Amino acid sequence: MLIVGTLAFDAIESPFGKTDKILGGAATFIGLAASQFDVKSAIVSVVGDDFNQEYLDLLSTKNIDLSGVEIVKGGRTFFWSGKYHNDLNTRDTLTTELNTLADFDPKVPEAYKNADVVMLGNLHPSIQMDVINQMESRPKLIILDTMNYWLDNALNELLEVLKKIDVITLNDEEARQLTGEYSLVKAAEKIETMGPKYVVIKKGEHGALLFNKKNIFFAPALPLEEVFDPTGAGDTFAGGFAGYLTATKNVSFENLKNAVIHGSNLASFCVEKFGTERMVDLKFDEVQSRLEQFKELTQFNIEIQ
Ligand code: AMP
User: Of all residues in the chain, what percent carry a pLDDT higher than 70?
Assistant: First the structure.
């Protein structure tokens, strides 16, 4: 599985506290989530030489190949800061400093030019396109995640890359912004005409929807007693979704439903602590027992006459 996305410094404010610059970035969360599955993965990204070696070591210990990570001498790493509102479902971006990302020229490692699954994490759509163009064979599945920043700043490039992908993940507000449709059903239908066969709309604490033609599947988010910091939940969802599909090598709609559950399950851990803290030590048994909880939450026996 090939992952493209930011490795970043994040500074987060939530009603529960405030962090200085900590490890963040879409590729970080995607990689940590995918490492819960038995998959080989590599990250393509860029950082400055201000990026902590301990962060790179951490990703390496999760068996993530970092040969596609460029370290720019004298450069500064992508920096993002955000502040969550009291409901924790909405946030304001305070700062986005692209830094080394602004002139990033991605290089896909040779060993990953035939990857089965490509997970294009949230970053400039022309970088996402560049990576697709470097693949030697058409991946079985190309998944793309994006956000409002790129809808605002690089819409035409985004529309071009959408023609080349299989699955898009984005949140409800972004789906509405992209299509001008308030109804998420209509929005998903419109997005399918732009290229992706499958549309996943993330609704934060209200779960996620999977669309494919007239088929719709819904997974709730696990109701949690405590949510500290939702940063990275969307990326963790995408990493779990992609990691599961890579591991199971099955891209049917039925299996995509399972992938949505795995993504939602992993995202439920991510939000329990600040930044990547919870994902770093997450144990297989914890993941399995929460999957049980997911089953119990959503299964019911009802007689239909
Ligand atoms: P999420 O909460 O899943 O939307 O992801 C948050 C992560 O996305 C943070 O760790 C940020 O470093 C990263 N991020 C924020 N804005 C951008 C952007 N414009 N491009 C790429 N990554 C971003």
Answer: 100
How distant, in Å, are the alpha carbons of 75, 77, 197, 251, 259 from that of 99? 7, 6, 34, 36, 34
Contact between residue 206 and residue 171 where contact means Cβ atoms under 8 Å apart? no
- pLDDT over threshold 90, residue 88: no
pTM above 0.70, yes or no: yes
User: Alpha-carbon distance 90 to 102, whole Å?
Assistant: 27
Helix axes 253-270, 284-298, angle to 10 degrees: 120
Taking the CA atoms of the chain, what radius of gyration do you get in angstroms?
A: 18
Q: Tokens in use for 275?
A: 């930044």
Q: Which residue has the tokens 């040969």?
A: 67
* Averaged pLDDT, 118-124: 96
Alpha carbon distance 160, 74 (integer Å): 33
The pLDDT of residue 278: 96
50 pLDDT tier (thresholds 50, 70, 90): very high
Ligand 1: residue whose CA is nearest its atom 18: 123
303 Cα–ligand 1 center, Å: 44
**Which helix (H) or strand (E) is 208 found in, with range?**
strand 208-212
Is the distance from the beta carbon of residue 14 to the nearest atom of ligand 1 less than 6 Å?
no
pLDDT tens, residue by residue, 173-199 = 999 999 999 999 999 999 999 999 999
Residue 94 has pLDDT above 90, yes or no: yes
Name which residue sits closest to atom 13 of ligand 1, judged by CA. 25
What residue's CA is closest to ligand 1, atom 5? 232
Distance 196 CA to ligand 1 centre (A): 22
Report which protein residue has its CA nearest ligand 1's atom 20. Answer: 123
**C-alpha torsion angle, residues 36, 38, 42, 48 (rounded to 10):** 30
